[in-house]
Design goal:
Strand order of the largest sheet of chain A: 1-2-6-3-7-18
CATH superfamily of the largest domain in chain A: Zn peptidases
Distance between the termini of chain A: 30 Å
Strand content of chain A: 15-25%
Number of helices of chain A: 12
Low-confidence stretches of chain A: none
Oligomer: homodimer
Helix content of chain A: 25-40%
Radius of gyration of chain A: 22 Å
CATH architecture of the largest domain in chain A: 3-Layer(aba) Sandwich
Chain lengths: ~425, ~425
């Protein structure tokens, strides 16, 4: 089986962590591929989904660890996929499937790079977890329990993308995440909407509570929300100012004709890296099928996420949210914190940063763009802060990869280059 | 087949008008039952679902018309039904099925009453439509086209309920209904929620728009909304004040421990009859399954209904809503008006009111309670205002009937009494 064929095998496994689907199957398939490449592999149980850990000794003890995840986002809305999400399909030199950019393509590209060496110059470790897309709830305990196993001199994080202009990027940090489910309750059952004149509607209650969280310019109104925000250093700010960003291309990719609050391209870059957010991921109440149904719903639910920046603490933000709801008279609304993630940042001066930059320059036509942090979230803080390993994130995606959306894909040329960059990094370390 | 067996046959047909389901089947079954009772029947096509019209001549030309509907509400949430909605089940002398109280039980009780006469003293007509639960969109044109066919001296409307204390009720009016679907649009597709810092979220936009419609005390803020409201006459107000109402029982039935805004029982009665409302029937955006998914939704949808009181006009209210959204900067939100209904009212002094009252006194243990109007809506205005027929609504339901909710039911004793009341009315007319 070629490496790309193996990748397709992996993509066929619908390992949706939010639905606890095909998790064991996927962990076993990853294990099989690592073993075939000469790794000593363990499937290590956690309180949630198992972690696949692999190690292959090199000539030197110097160690590079790859952090990846074998789980994927739910594929819905299914009707928007051109081909089914778990039936990998190649069209115009792009490979389409849920998880191909985030993050199964990177797992297999890294494995291909390792396999290109007859004798590995350094020791390589893989930690591949199965809960990244649900906020990595078991990884903190895992990392704290297996510190010596995970020891390494540097870490390559799970994913990276070419930007709208085709420039490869490298990220040195991640945002934190505070994901909260809110639920408002009314009657014990759905009622005829004629009773709306005398019975409170939990959907009204929930949306009233939600609208207290932000003003119309998206400034978050939770008291203390911005208190711990650490602004970027002058050094970071200089790097940010040098980031090339084509707003027109970005807007076209995102399918919008203007940014939020008509912000400029420069503001957009700054917000993507240093702006915390409060977003409605989902909301549901009552009858939502076709036609009309006159109902007074029994309950209403919303899922919201806060993206956090260094030094915001998701547990503290959750407490502030709870206090905010109480203060505004919404203490009857249930709140549930799901999989908190802390923000992370690796110093621009770390050795792995220059090694990776040189490797990228050696492979790609365009010079790499360095992002001191990134717009997405992950458990990178466990590596940078808990394990103390300098970490950079690169990968085989591009600006058209549609991560978390229907028709996720990667370019097969990017995939080849991604293999070569990892090979260069291993040589140079 | 006994009458109750025939009713169960009718209840097995899942004639959900919102889904255009089993409509023709149900119209044909109703036709069959009317024909077996000696009616001359026509299934009359409309632009939507067909109307079943039946007529049976009596000794006198005096004519009583029954307005009913063979369609039902959608049965969801399905998992809350003790037995499946379209498999009628008797438990503790109650018959459970979707549509048994609203309105198939009344169709069959009325038919049983007519069948109890060897020679009918008066002429009986049935008009049984198939779109009541979606707002009767075709009935107005039907009524205007078939005025002579529908000529009658009085009309018995589709439904009625014993109250919490077991007193039979009679209603002389109905609220109007303005049902609107709203839709806000963001990106062309769902995005990773990391982009929430730079791309507008249509769910935020929709809930912000919705919260401008009412203040926190449920006063509707649409300019001109209350302008055409006609307060009850002194005569009506006296009847309303005499309505017995057990707030504790009502709250227990509704599954709440207090009324909206902690209103008193008297205020509750007044609001049920004379209070317009603005209610969220449903809202949906983004990911609403289990677990967490970090998504920035592409669109957001809400269904709202306004219950209207005499002289509010649903088409005017829809225009005022559209103007309100424009005025508040939400003209990008799509609005769609579905099946408007006007409010209706029959004078307390009409002959059919006293005939029905006397018939109810002759059958029931408790004296009837007269409601000058009711909390629900329907196309009654087409009969009272367009055809000019005095109309009263009575029926076989009770306060536990859970109309529009899971586990809809009627008491089989109420069903027998309901047959007897119609028999008495036919005798007395």
């Amino acid at each position: 089986m070629t490496n790309v064929e193996a990748l397709k095998e992996l993509l066929k496994i619908p390992s949706v962590s939010a639905h606890h689907q095909a998790i064991q199957d996927c962990a076993e398939k990853v294990t099989e591929f690592l073993q075939e490449a000469g790794f000593h592999v363990q499937i290590i149980p956690t309180e949630g989904h198992p972690v696949v850990f692999g190690e292959k000794k090199g000539i030197s003890d110097k160690t590079l660890i790859f952090y990846d995840h074998y789980d994927v986002q739910p594929p819905d809305p299914l009707d928007q996929w051109v081909t089914p999400p778990f039936e990998p399909d190649v069209r115009d030199n792009r490979l389409y499937a849920r998880g191909v950019a985030d993050n199964k393509g990177n797992i297999m590209a890294r494995l291909a790079a390792v396999e290109s060496f007859d004798r590995l110059p350094i020791t390589i470790k893989f930690i591949i977890e199965g809960e990244e897309e649900i906020g990595s709830p078991s990884l903190q305990k895992f990392v704290e329990t297996h510190k010596s196993l995970l020891k390494a001199d540097a870490c390559i994080w799970e994913a990276g993308y070419k930007d709208e202009a085709g420039r490869p990027t490298m990220c040195l940090g991640a945002k934190g995440l505070c994901y909260v489910q809110l639920r408002a309750h009314g009657s014990k059952r759905d009622l005829h909407s004629a009773f709306a004149v005398i019975v409170e509607n939990p959907a009204w209650r929930l949306i009233r509570a939600l609208t207290t969280l932000k003003d119309s310019r998206d400034h978050i109104l939770i008291e203390g929300f911005y208190q711990d925000v650490e602004p970027p250093t002058a050094e970071e700010r200089a790097i940010v100012d040098s980031i090339p960003y084509d707003g027109d291309k970005a807007r076209a990719m995102l399918g919008v004709d203007h940014f939020l609050n008509d912000m400029s391209d420069e503001e957009a870059v700054y917000h993507l890296l240093y702006g915390p957010s409060c977003n409605i991921c989902g909301i549901l109440s009552g009858y939502t099928g076709q036609g009309s149904k006159t109902v007074l719903p029994a309950d209403a639910m919303a899922k919201i996420d806060f993206r956090l920046v260094p030094r915001q603490d998701p547990q503290k933000i959750f407490q502030l949210l709870t206090l905010h709801l109480e203060k505004h008279g919404f203490s009857d609304i249930d709140t549930e914190l799901m999989g908190p993630l802390w923000p992370a940042k690796t110093p621009v001066t770390a050795e792995i940063v220059s090694v990776t930059e040189q490797s990228m320059r050696a492979v790609y036509e365009n010079p790499p763009v360095i992002y001191p942090t990134m717009s997405g979230s992950g458990p990178m803080w466990l590596f940078t802060d808990v394990l103390g390993i300098p970490t950079v994130s690169i990968g085989v995606g591009d600006a058209e990869s549609r991560t978390h959306s229907p028709n996720e894909s990667i370019s097969l040329s990017d995939y080849e280059e991604g293999i070569n960059v990892i090979t260069e990094i291993i040589k140079r370390m």
